[in-house]
């Protein structure tokens, strides 16, 4: 792990588990030293924290490119934690995030992607976008589905301060990825979402989650 990530892993891990009792199952499905993409449902901003501190390996998260261009602490934190910049301008700028993730995956690292693309507005599980599957195919790695439960109850809509609530993470068996066409990417993405749903018990919505602000 990068030094800053390792320090945050220890410190935040103890803090989060002390405040929010956390159950983690299925870690045997996580590759010990080879590349994989972790794909989880997305309830809250805290999902990245809970996934990061409860996974015993370094995870490269995508972070807004603006963070890397900022001055002071923010830039040092995202750089020190090995984050991957994502430029939201679209086009080739978005593909650069793929280009940055592929060497990490081929080098045996882990990358986390939320296939819904944004946080669920109502706790349900929405249709997945095919980016994670296409990235896995390009890098030649499997996808490990992860089910997050309870993070949406830490600070539900209308509540100013977080509250104590149990959280659980379940790592499911890896999904091998072979993509020969757009239809393959769609089919595997739907299978991935079905596997996540089996881990969370969420109601499924067969449409994309609406874009969120903030």
UniProtKB/TrEMBL annotation:
**Coiled-coil intervals in this record?**
none
Gene Ontology cellular component list: plasma membrane
Q: Which InterPro entries match?
A: Plipid/glycerol_acylTrfase
Q: Which residues form the Phospholipid/glycerol acyltransferase domain?
A: 36-151
| Gene Ontology biological process | phosphatidic acid biosynthetic process
Q: Name one GO molecular function term.
A: 1-acylglycerol-3-phosphate O-acyltransferase activity
Give TM segment ranges. none
List the SMART domains hit by this protein, alphabetically: PlsC (SM00563)
Q: Which UniProt keywords apply?
A: Acyltransferase, Transferase
Q: Which Pfam families match?
A: Acyltransferase
Q: What PANTHER family would the database entry show?
A: 1-ACYL-SN-GLYCEROL-3-PHOSPHATE ACYLTRANSFERASE (PTHR10434)
What this protein is called in its record is 1-acyl-sn-glycerol-3-phosphate acyltransferase
């Amino acid at each position: 792990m990068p030094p800053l990530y390792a320090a945050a892993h220890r410190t935040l891990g103890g803090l989060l588990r002390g405040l929010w009792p956390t159950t983690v199952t299925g870690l045997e499905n996580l590759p010990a030293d080879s590349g994989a993409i972790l794909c989880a449902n997305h309830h809250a901003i805290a999902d990245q924290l809970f996934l990061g501190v409860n996974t015993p390996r370094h995870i490269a998260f995508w972070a807004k490119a603006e963070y890397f261009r900022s001055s002071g602490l923010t830039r040092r934190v995202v750089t020190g934690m090995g984050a991957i910049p994502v430029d939201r301008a679209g086009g080739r700028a978005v593909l650069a995030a793929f280009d940055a993730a592929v060497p990490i995956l081929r080098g045996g690292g882990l990358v986390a992607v939320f296939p819904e693309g944004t946080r669920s507005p109502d706790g349900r599980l929405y249709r997945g976008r095919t980016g994670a599957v296409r990235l896995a195919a390009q890098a030649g790695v499997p996808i490990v589905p992860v089910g997050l439960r309870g993070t949406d109850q830490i600070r539900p809509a209308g509540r100013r301060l977080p509250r104590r609530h149990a959280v659980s993470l379940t790592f499911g068996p890896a999904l091998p990825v072979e993509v020969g066409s757009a239809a393959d990417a769609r089919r595997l993405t739907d299978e991935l979402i079905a596997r996540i749903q089996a881990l969370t018990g969420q109601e499924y919505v067969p449409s994309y989650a609406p874009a969120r602000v903030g």
